[in-house]
Amino acid sequence: MTALSNIKVFSKPLVANLAKLGIGDLQSLLLHLPLRYIDETHITPIRDLRMGESAQVEGEIVHTEVSYKPRKALISRIEDASGQLTLRFLHFYPSQIAALKAGAQLRVYGEVRHGFFGYEMVHPTCKAVGATTEVAETLTPVYPTVAGLTQPSIRKAIRMALTQANLAETLPADVYANLKLPSFVESLQALHHPPPEVSLHALEQKTTPHWRRLAFDELLAQQLSMRKHYARRRSVSAPQFKPSRQLVSALLKNLPFALTASQQKVALEIEQDLTQPHPMQRLLQGDVGSGKTIVACMAALQSIENGWQVALMAPTEILAEQHYRKMIMWLAPLNIEIAWLTGSQGKKDRDAALAAIASGCAQLVVGTHALFQDAVQFKKLGLAIIDEQHRFGVHQRLALRQKGQPEPHQLMMSATPIPRTLSMSYYADLDVSVIDELPPGRTPVVTKLVSDVRREEILQRVRDACLQGNQAYWVCPLIEESETLQLATANDTYTLLRQELPELTVGLVHGRMKPAEKQSVMAAFSAGEVQLLVATTVIEVGVDVPNASLMVIEHAERMGLSQLHQLRGRVGRGASKSTCILLYQNKLSETARARLKVIYESNDGFAIAQADLHIRGPGELLGVRQSGVPMLKIADLERDADLLESAKLTADKLLQAYPLEVEQHLSRWMMSAGEYVKV
Ligand code: ADP
Ligand code: MG
Fold first, then answer.
1. Phi, psi (deg, nearest 5) at residue 380
2. Contact status, residue 644 vs residue 453, Cβ threshold 8 Å
3. How many CA within 13 A on the CB side of residue 394?
C-alpha cells in the first residue's frame, strides 16, 4: 500500500487534507468516488434551457448592476445568439462586480429557475472564457471533501492516483463476466470521468454497471473478510459439552409453560453447537417477548452439567437484576450456585462474588459490564451469554470472551430483529437462530396514535386502568442532545403526573438514579405497589412486569422504530389486553408520520426492523456508534440486494480456488480479515 506522504507530487497540505477524509494511500484515494456529477460537456443555447435542469451556458455579458429590490443582489445578464439569461448573486464580493463587466465572454453552470425577467440562475459557477476554450470531454465529478480542499484540487489528486495506482483486476474474468459486470479498471475510470452520454440520473442512483461493479467488489470484500474470520474461529478449540441429561429436563419439568416449537428448534441448534470442539458464535434473535431467556438458561445448564461456568451479561442494571431474579427462581431448585456482579455493589458483596467466581463455586454469574473487568477471574468459563448484544461494543464482548481458557462458547441475544440482508452482510460471521413465534395466549398490543392535545383523555384512561387493578408505564420523551434535559423532563413529568393523578401511587425510574433506588422502584412496580411508573427509555430493554397493560409514550415521533417496538414490548406480557398510546406533537413531518404509521400498523418486529433499515440505514440498527463496525460506503443493502447474493456465492468460490485473488481483493479494499467483524 503506497502512502500518499511518500509520493512526491502530493504536497504536504494536500496529504493533510486527504487524511481528514480518511484517505492515506493511493488505493483509498482511487476508491474515493464522486457524490454527484455536473455536465460541462456541452453548451446549451439559452433558448433551449429547461426549468429545473442544470446546464452550461456561454454568452456575452450585456449588463451588470447591484440592485436593491427586493433585496440586495448582484444581477448580470448574458446573451447568446438565441436569447438572454439573468444571473443572480445574493452574496458577492466587489471583485465579482468587476469581473462581470459588460462585453466579457462568460461560461456559467447552474440550475435554471423562473425569475422576474424570465429564466435565471442563482449563484451559477462562472468562468471567463477566451475564443478557444474547449468544453469538458467527460462529466465533471463532484467529490465529498473537507474545508480547505477545493474540488479542482481533489479532482487533480484523483487524476494523479489514476495514473499511478495499481489498477490490476482482482477477480477472475469469468466471475465478473458471468455477473454481466465490467472490469475494475473500466469501472473506476468511468466513475471518475464518465463519458457524456451516461445518464446523470442513473449515475446518481448508482445503478450503472460501473457503480454496480464497485458495489459488488465492496460486498465481496466484506463477505471474504467475514468468512475468513468465521473459518479462523472454527480452528480454535473450545470445551465440548455433552447434551444435558438431568438439569435441562428438571428445569423444564418445573416450568409453568411448555416451550414453543420455535424455542425447541433453536434450543436444539444451540445444544448441537455446544457439543462441538470449537467455540459457538451464535446470535439468537427473537422478537420482544418471544422467550429467549429460557433458551439461554437451557444452554447455561448444559455447560454447568459438564462442569463449566457460565456468564450472563446484560446491558443495564435493571435488566441484569431481573435476569438474576429469574435465574434464582428457575435454578435455585436445581441447587445451582448463582453469583451477582455489578459495578454498584458494596465491596463486601463484590469480594464475595469475585471469590466465588474464582473458586468455581459460582456456577452461573449474572451481571452487567462489571463482568469483564480485570478483577474478575473465572475458574473455568465455558459459555458467555450476552443479552441485547448490540448494546455492547466490540471490545467489551472480546474482553468477556478472553475470560475463558480455552475460548468459551458465546451466545448473543438480540430483540432487535435483523433484516435478512443485514444478517447476510454485517452478521455473516455468525450463525443465526431465530425464534419466530410468540408463546401462545398473548393478545397483541393495541397501538393508538394520539395527538398530545388530547392529554386529558389519556390521563383519564390511565386513571381508570390503574383503579381497575392494572398498571401502567408513562415513558418520557427522548432528548438526545442532553441527558440533563432528559432528566429534568422526567422529573417534571413525574411531579406533574402526581398532581394530575393524586389517587394513584406514582413511581419514577431513570438512568441516573442510584442502582439501589432504581431497584427498589422496580421491585415496588413488580410487586404492584406502584401503579404508574414514570420512566425514561431505561425500561426499553427486557423489563418484564406482566401486570402492566397500558403504556403511554410521549413524543413518540422522536424515537426510533425499533426502540418504540421494544418499549411497546413491555406491555402485552400478561393475559389481559394491552394498549400502547403513542402521543405525538401536532405538526408531524412527512417522515415522522410515515414512521409512526409503520409502528401503528405492524406488531411484527421483523417488518418494523426492515422499515427502520429503510428509513435510518444500517448504522443505527447495528449500533455502530458502540461497535465501530466499518460501514459499507458504496453498496446499499436494499438497492444491491441481488449483488449481495452473488457476492456470497463468489466468496465461496474464491475462498476455495483463488487464495491469491482473495488476498489481493481484501488488500485493495483494505479489509484485513476480521476487520468487519463484531467479535
Ligand atoms: P425476550 O425474548 O423478550 O427476552 P423473555 O425471555 O423475557 O422474552 O420472555 C418473556 C416472557 O414470556 C417471560 O415472562 C417468560 O417467562 C415467558 N415465556 C417464555 N417462554 C414461554 C412459553 N413457551 N410459554 C409461555 N410463556 C413463556
Ligand atoms: Mg430479553
1. -150, 85
2. no
3. 13
Topology of the domain covering 247-435:
Rossmann fold (3.40.50)
CB 534 within 8 A of CB 518: no
Q: CA 256, CA 244: separation in Å to the nearest integer?
A: 21
Lowest model confidence (mean pLDDT) among 12-16, 69-73, 253-257, 671-675: 671-675
| Residue 414 CA, ligand 2 centroid: distance in Å | 8
Q: Are 224 and 171 in contact (CB under 8 A)?
A: no
Q: Which three cell numbers stand for residue 313?
A: 451479561
CATH topology (fold) of 446-602: Rossmann fold (3.40.50)
| Sheet containing 281-286, strands listed edge to edge, beginning at the edge strand earlier in sequence | 338-341, 364-367, 309-313, 381-386, 409-414, 281-286, 431-435
| Amino acid at site 668 | R
Mutate-to-test residue for ligand 1 from 252, 283, 293, highest number of ligand atoms within 8 A of CB: 293
Terminal-to-terminal C-alpha distance of the chain: 26
For 614-661, the pLDDT digits (tens) are 877 777 666 654 455 667 889 998 899 999 999 999 999 999 999 999
What pLDDT digit, counting tens, does each position of 434-474 carry?
998 888 877 788 999 999 899 999 999 999 999 999 999 99
DSSP assignment string, 272-337 = HHHTSSS--EEEEEE-TTS-HHHHHHHHHHHHHHTT-EEEEE-SSHHHHHHHHHHHHHHHGGGT--
Dihedrals phi, psi of 581, to nearest 5 degrees: -105, 120
Q: Which amino acid is at 612?
A: D
For 603, residues 6+ apart whose C-beta sits below 8 A from its C-beta are 444, 445, 447
Residues facing 413 on adjacent strands:
284
Q: Do domains 42-135 and 446-602 have the same CATH topology?
A: no
The counts of H helices and E strands in the chain are 25, 21
Neighbour tally for 620: CB within 10 Å: 17
pLDDT digits (tens, 9 = 90+) for 530-560: 999 999 877 766 677 888 999 999 999 888 8
Domain spanning 42-135: CATH superfamily: Nucleic acid-binding proteins (2.40.50.140)
Domain locations in the chain as residue ranges: 4-37+141-216, 42-135, 247-435, 446-602
Q: Ligand 1: which residues within 6 Å by Cβ?
A: 257, 259-260, 263, 286, 288-294, 415, 439, 544, 573
- How much distance in Å is there from the Cα of 472 to the middle of ligand 1? 20
